[in-house]
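Problem statement: downstream parser choked on a complex file, so we are re-checking the raw output for the protoporphyrin IX containing FE run. The parser issue turned out to be on our end (a line-ending mismatch), but while we're here, posting the original submission so the record is complete.
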Amino acid sequence: MAQPPVTGVRYSAGQRSFHWLIFAFVLLAYVFINIKGWLPRGDAARVGMLEAHFAAGLAVLLLIVPRLMLRLRRGAPAVTPEPPRPVRILGHITHGLLYLFLVVQPVLGILAVELSGHAIDLPFGLAIPALHTPGNAALAHSIREIHEDVGDIFYWVIGLHIVAALWHHWFRRDDTLKRML
Ligand code: HEM
Ligand code: HEM
């Protein structure tokens, strides 16, 4: 059961670590898949970038589980001075969308590969075996398209989140950002 918000100045050390670690892996997932797109077909590095994308995305899924458990246990510290209600509501909506994204996006990615009947090949020769052979090419293709669209849409949501964090810090001059550092 959720506890009342902690009254400390910052998020707990664990919450802060998870936030920035997951941020790093999401960033890497985006960087790797974009570099993959720039490389010519048939280039071995292109395959390497796709495998690195899978690994970064899987790391997000592994880390989001303990992060959400910690969030339910520790809550969120209050912002000082308290922002107006509409700003607080917008923050809740954005954070809810971000949490949803961090769970759903890697799951869609895994389904896109597994439903195509392929193993998820990872760096260093590691792999998650194919669990659904011979696969369902049409379904896998649709899920992959959703995964790509969600990935494109979240550039904007993540962008809004970052702009909001900087707006709180530089223009509203509250402690929103300091609570996460
Ligand atoms: C938070 C984690 C993830 C993010 C942010 C993410 C984001 C993206 C983005 C932005 C694209 C390219 C979209 C485009 O070309 O317009 C993409 C493609 C793809 N992703 Fe992910 N992804 C994540 C996790 C995963 C995972 C865990 C897997 C599978 C294990 C996966 C599998 C794929 C596949 C198969 C593609 C298509 C690649 C291609 O062009 O051949 N993704 N992803
Ligand atoms: C992939 C990128 C990011 C994702 C997915 C993400 C996700 C999240 C989520 C889900 C929360 C809600 C925390 C909670 O209530 O438990 C949050 C809070 C926060 N994030 Fe991010 N974040 C990202 C990048 C960033 C960056 C780059 C910054 C700084 C410029 C930032 C600053 C903050 C701050 C200050 C909070 C606290 C907001 C509040 O409590 O009102 N985030 N983030």
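For whoever reads this later: The CA atoms of residues 21 and 63 lie 8 Å apart.
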